[in-house]
Amino acid sequence: MYEGYDRTPGSAGGAAERIIGKAIAGMDRSRIRIATKLGMKVGTEPVDAGTSAAAIHTQLSRSLERLDTGYVDIYYLHCFDGSVPFEEMLTALAEEQEAGRILHYGVSNYSAGQLSALLAAADRTGLPRPVVCQPPLSLLKQDACVDLLPLCQREGIAVIPYQIYQGGLLTGKYRRGEDVPAGSRGAEMPSWLMARDDALFDRLEAVEAAAAERGLTMAQYALRWVLEQPAVVSAIVGVKSQKQIDSALAALTD
Description:
Blueprint: H1 15-24, E1 35-38, H2 53-67, E2 72-77, H3 86-98, E3 102-108, H4 112-125, E4 132-134, H5 148-155, E5 158-159, H6 185-188, H7 198-213, H8 218-227, H9 242-250
Parallel strand pairs: 1-2, 2-3, 3-4, 4-5
Helix pairs in contact: 2-3, 7-8
């Protein structure tokens, strides 16, 4: 579904997959790990939303064509779909695994209760379990730490969080009383950020002080905090520049 800030619900998406497809052209596929998703609305037909068997088979075919590859390593269920029986969904995923078009599957934006129900259904039917969970998680949004991460740790499910910088709020670029920086999420898509009020800046300044105590930037501290949580094995880092990549890598070294 990813195609930029001007996306509208139901538009076809696919831009990110095409970019990845071009980027990996001619490369050794065995050295690359690719994850993509289905579930959000990407058209007007029934198969263009949700995680029904028909949607799984159709959307995976379209993703593979855009990526110009024969398989994806992880296929995420982008969000919980209460209209589809778990058995239908799990059977379709198992069929795609048997066909070699996906190696593993995972879930995104599932609550602990929803993931528990999915695991129970997989065990009951003898169908494959998800291997990874992708929740939002940051110093400013720690809901997943209550039930979801402990569940994943108990069940041996890897966690790869997104939104770890909370739209850039945890990078130090937003300051109390100052305008939002040009080119930032706050300037380009302000509705995607938490309200920048005094309560938020109190929290951000406390994070900055904690980061300084460890000799880290806010962004490095935010990334390390996420990676130190139970069951977390990696994190999705959004970047716009080489400098931001370098900063993220620096957070991983002492």
